[in-house]
Fold this protein.
Amino acid sequence: MLSLLAVASGEPPAAWAQAEGLQLDRQPLGQAIGKPPAPGSPAANNDLAILLWLQKTRTPEMEANTWLTLERNPSVFSRTLGVDMARNTPRLNAGLISFLVPIDAVKDSFKKELARRRPFVQFPQIKPCLPLEGTNSYPSGHATWFRATAELLADLFPKRQSEIVALGALGGSNRVLCGVHFPSDVEAGQRFGVAAARQIINSAQWRSFKANPEIQAELQKISPISGQTKL
């Protein structure tokens, strides 16, 4: 069983407990991820060509914007909802984090098994514009996290799906722009994020989370149509 991480002091415990006992079916998630391109294959060569082209064409402004999606925290989606999630919907914020814990755990296990090295490790001509990371490359953890979070939020706010999912995609694509992931890493992370979120959305824990009166009260603070809040 995948256990939740310890709840940080001050977080709403009821929201965290909603995901307790959640288990993800690893086999279909592995199918969604697939295998990284073989070294020297046309797909691998295309990965490198894209990174080199982006490195040559990106601007300082583009590089600076990638830092906006560096932190993996649901509050990054606040602007798509028109509300400060950490301040105004803390139980929703904490609950989302708890549902993302098992996704991260499974993702990390695949990263270890597939053992694809980062592009800047394999190719010294790649010059990243984001902090270097020592973990493996496939699938992208940022792409997984942002897309899974976007899918969960879109289930809660279906009328804002396009804006939410667009931000979910940006969190992964920025990793390619800055050379810390191959394009295929991000594509695999996006597929994994969608597949994992679907399992969560179909779980009893997610249904209970959505029905929680405290969560419902916070959802009502967000207008279903406009960017205006009800605060």
User: Anything to note?
Assistant: The chain is about 60% helix and 0% strand. The chain has one domain: 39-219.
